[in-house]
Amino acid sequence: MAALRASKLNTSFKLWHVFEIKERDAAGRICRLETPHGTITTPTVLPVINPSSMPISPEEIRKMGAQAVITNSYIIYKNENFRKIAMENGVHKLINFSGPIMTDSGSFQIYMYGADISPLEIVEFQRDIGSDIGTILDLFSLNATKHRAIDEVSETIKRARASVSLKKKMMLACTVQGGTYPDLREKCAREMGKLNADVHPIGGVVPLMEQQRYRELAEIIIASKKGLPPSRPVHLFGAGHPMVFPMAVALGCDMFDSAAYIKYASDGRMIFPDGTAKLDEMEELPCSCRVCSSYKVKELREMEEKERTAKLAYHNLYQMFAEMRRIREAIRGGWLWELVERRAASHPALMDAMEVLKKEKKWLERWEPISKKRAFMYTGRYSMHRPTIYRLHKRLLERFSFRYPDSVILKEKGKPYSRYYKNLKGRKANFVVDSSIGFIPIELEEMYPIAQSVFPIKIDEEGKRIVRTFNKKFEGKIPGIVGMGEIKNEKGDFDLQKIMAVADMQFGKGAGKALFDGDIKIIKSRKTGKIRNVYCDGKHVVSMRATDGFFTLKAAGAKLLHELFKAPKLRVVVEDDAVPFIGEGKNVFAKFVIECDDELRPYDEALIVDSKDELIAVGQCRMNREEMLSFESGMAAKTRESIT
Amino acid sequence: MAALRASKLNTSFKLWHVFEIKERDAAGRICRLETPHGTITTPTVLPVINPSSMPISPEEIRKMGAQAVITNSYIIYKNENFRKIAMENGVHKLINFSGPIMTDSGSFQIYMYGADISPLEIVEFQRDIGSDIGTILDLFSLNATKHRAIDEVSETIKRARASVSLKKKMMLACTVQGGTYPDLREKCAREMGKLNADVHPIGGVVPLMEQQRYRELAEIIIASKKGLPPSRPVHLFGAGHPMVFPMAVALGCDMFDSAAYIKYASDGRMIFPDGTAKLDEMEELPCSCRVCSSYKVKELREMEEKERTAKLAYHNLYQMFAEMRRIREAIRGGWLWELVERRAASHPALMDAMEVLKKEKKWLERWEPISKKRAFMYTGRYSMHRPTIYRLHKRLLERFSFRYPDSVILKEKGKPYSRYYKNLKGRKANFVVDSSIGFIPIELEEMYPIAQSVFPIKIDEEGKRIVRTFNKKFEGKIPGIVGMGEIKNEKGDFDLQKIMAVADMQFGKGAGKALFDGDIKIIKSRKTGKIRNVYCDGKHVVSMRATDGFFTLKAAGAKLLHELFKAPKLRVVVEDDAVPFIGEGKNVFAKFVIECDDELRPYDEALIVDSKDELIAVGQCRMNREEMLSFESGMAAKTRESIT
């Protein structure tokens, strides 16, 4: 197992800061990031502070919701007075902000006007003025040929490598570059990921965002994320318009920074989550923030320019922070895809980006939780492309087995299906419901997202096509489709059929047979009539969750699956040192994980084993394999029961 | 023409209040409604005030954005103390509100608990306590059989008829009922429209909204609107969740009332334009209103219930008022359909309602302005169903004529089309661009929405089908489709081709020939190179608007079209009394219009004629025919030039 452990990325150096996942949805996550000046909850946006002009003070911005700010070290360096104060008293005193400060290196300014400081000097300068997170001086490839972009990426990596040795206690942001070439971005990201870096900005994307080239932006984010270790915070450099926040977060971006709040304000423009509006073109303010509920358009227009700019900047900040809170709420509630899809309707260029996401289902599925707190809400033509549907169809094709020789296709009348087909319950035939999400065997009715989904009467044609394609494949597996009149009036055991089917879908083909091979006793809720606990030969093997219809695996069940499935299936392998702790019921922390089944997904049930594949506990994953092997902190799996 | 004039609906009685359209989009409008206690700008929402419990005072609600409030006269009547105060000092004193007060008659309470006041007494009571807008005591048909609903509608109409004679100076709201039977709603609306009523609530829809039966709600609104005169304000009774506001406004609802702000608040629920969230299920507040930017979730939860309810009620009101301002801004900016479509993504039940709208294109097209301030933004699968696209396809099929025997189909490379096909400009062949909205002859490139539209790279399948269906029909009209190599290298006159085509599309087939039959001189903008003014035989016949590519018709052009087209085409016929004023350049007010071309749409150019079809002026419509014949106030057409 030594080889496996070496595959962990961060073992060659100790990161002194902590970055850990607290909640997750889509490929997005809520994380805790510790910095020398305090902890940040990501995703978050860092307002850009220009030390020469602070119409709203950083501390005031903090009160409005900023957890950290970003300022430009090159501007400080170039101004003798600023430099002196920063060197003597630190950057926190210079801009009078006590929270975490990230500094930019001035790559853009130097790109535009030429350098008068070396790439390593500016890193040292950032460190010396006490920046919490400094940034390397990268080269950014704007409209570069691929050849040139390759050279610039090499140089940027070289600088990053040299810079990490200088950082000391400063956290260092090593920027991913590579122009609009996804392969180059991924390669650059992979190299950067090998370094002792703390944050990875995705750089050189401001021109794309200004031109609303969101399709390319999405490609770049995905390529960068594929190359980077998932344990690194990813910062989308210069992304300050909330229009891109939901999608970028869903793809795994953690940090944003924005000068837009003030730039737009000084141009008389107001930011909204779905676009921008000019004060001069409005008659009323379609917003309820403190500014918009205190002033009328006319009053703002008639203000002195400086005052108006400040007011609009307040509004813009309120909007940005509110959208970030909304995104975090969406992650917690499991409706981030809904938010992304709704926001896509704000601009056709965002729809172009959605086309990129459609092609990345396989990658997106790896990060997608297996169930959510809230129902799957259809929003339109992107909904059927969600990883949840992709996974459902895949598992149905790969894992589901039919029980009887005859099958009947039923109409979808309501949920759960069997309530609308009471007389069929348990008759000896396969009942398959022709639902909005495709053919669904009736016994899976309670599994997320089957029961937990809401569709309009008519779904879009593209969604229908996805369903048709799946149905065609699945229909080939349905045995003997007959009319209702042709099936025998014999009673089968619907409950047994249900638990067998759920087990196979959740754990893999054959799981049902292994778990329920004996004298089965099913305990149901008196209130709802739903299956609660399943005993086999007197042993409690699984419980069924009322909320999502999935099983919680019990120790007895875990043993059976451990016997049935060969490693690495369903396994999370932990270091031998951690075994005693987990045996006592402690949770599995990522740093102790040395291997993991590549098929496990967040919130999947898992078998916790030691390096000799001895079963030591059963638990529920909080991460997928890449994450378990990459993260140094945070919970990899929640231990449910240790095996005694 | 006497018969025509009698067709005007309101001539048998004089309405003392004013209700007039100021701005419009879709079938929605911004209107000014005068009441005894002040003017209201619709669409607007009236918060419900319960005199027994006012956690937020009406005057405070007014400061937050309420233009008027609604209270329940039956509750006042039933409480001896309230009744006494209201009878002695008026309802305004009772609830201490100086703005317009609408009163409800307690239909719901009486439906639930039985009546102890007669239908006419409650109207008199409302009048006597000084309500600005009183409401008849209607019967509302909840889940009634059609037979019963018919009876209840008859009784409601009978009561309305009796009530109008009692109203005196009070405005009276005569409620449209008819259950979920659209034909009955339309019939009831037609009868109510004949009465001397001032406002028409659409009643009995609260249960539908509570159950999110938005499809039926849309059917009911449309049926009611079809039956009512367009000059009457329409109030959607009990619609207090902003989720339904954009669609209801787009269908022509002007007023809303809401107890939801307080009901939801006391239940710990927070209203958002796209749904509702429970305080108990949130960790952060995804909003930037005064409440949400002042408190954290935890603080709100820990408040005393009464205080928390008030805070949440504030939040709910802020959201409602902000959404109303957003809707009004959308009407002003011409992006109401975009807002409706985006909001539809909030809930599948709203999508079900969109299916109803798809079937009502023909009706919706009648109210749709011919061009807008902003570009047509595609939002998803409903966009291609918009009346603008329906009209464009219809006019292309009915009005467009090809000039040359050979035609070439071009790819859409960018806008305006000819900029990307410079070498083709004016070559003697028909160039047809295969665009996102269908086959478009290149010479129409500047007309709204052709140049003024934004699409994603890939549109939805349903939209594609609409385009395919149109293309199939239009292709049949395209003469001799050949390859690029097969066309002659002869130069035609692209500018002439353009003005001919635009004239036909805008005014009707043959207009181009009539307007430009002579020595043509085209003046272009020096800056943009766009066509500005067109002279024929030295006379200025039309100007082309840079913003939307439509013509402004000049006096000389109007004369030519007046000769070409027989009445009623393009005509707005005014009373003889009004002729001298219009001759002086005064605008055409609705009350003077006695007939109008049924094909004219808002912002269409029109020929203003007298009853003998003498041309007296040229102008731009602000209304369609139904509106011109129904409204007693407001501008029917803006006079551009009088004919001398």
What is the strand and helix layout of this fold?
Two copies of one chain form a homodimer.
Chain A (H helix, E strand, L loop, with lengths): L1 H5 L12 E7 L2 E8 L2 E5 L1 E6 L8 H7 L4 E4 H6 L1 H10 L1 H4 L6 E4 L2 H7 L5 H10 L4 E3 L10 H19 L6 E3 L8 H13 L5 E3 L3 H5 L3 H14 L6 E3 L8 H6 L4 E4 L1 H7 L2 E4 L2 E4 L18 H6 L2 H29 L2 H9 L3 H11 L2 H5 L10 E2 L9 H13 L7 E5 L18 E6 L2 E4 L11 E2 L6 H15 L18 H14 L3 H5 L4 E5 L6 E6 L2 E6 L6 E3 L1 H10 L6 E4 L4 H5 L4 E2 L3 E4 L8 E5 L5 E7 L3 H6 L4 E8 L2
Q: Please, could you describe this protein's structure?
A:
With 644 residues, chain A is an alpha/beta fold. Chain A has 25 helices and 28 strands. In chain A, the strands form eight sheets. A six-stranded parallel sheet of chain A has the order 6-5-4-11-10-9. Chain A has a six-stranded mixed sheet with strand order 24-28-27-26-23-25. In chain A, helix 2 links the parallel strand 4 and strand 5. In chain A, helix 11 runs parallel beside helix 17 and helix 13 packs antiparallel against helix 15. The two termini of chain A are 24 Å apart.
What is this structure, in a nutshell?
The structure is a homodimer of 644-residue chains. Chain A is an alpha/beta fold. The longest helix of chain A is centred in the middle third of the chain and has 29 residues, at 305-333.
Total of helices of chain A: 25
Number of strands of chain A: 28
Q: Quaternary arrangement of the chains shown?
A: homodimer
Main β-sheet, spatial strand arrangement of chain A: 6-5-4-11-10-9
Which shape of chain A, going by the Cα principal axes?
globular
Distance between the termini of chain A: 24 Å
How large is the radius of gyration of chain A? 27 Å
Kindly estimate the percentage of residues of chain A that lie in beta strands according to DSSP. Answer: 15-25%
Sheet with the most strands of chain A? 6 strands, parallel
Going by helix content, strand content and strand pairing, the class of chain A is alpha/beta
Largest interface (CB within 8 Å) is between: A-B, 52 and 52 residues
* Amount of helix of chain A: 25-40%
The average pLDDT value of chain A, as a whole number, equals: 94
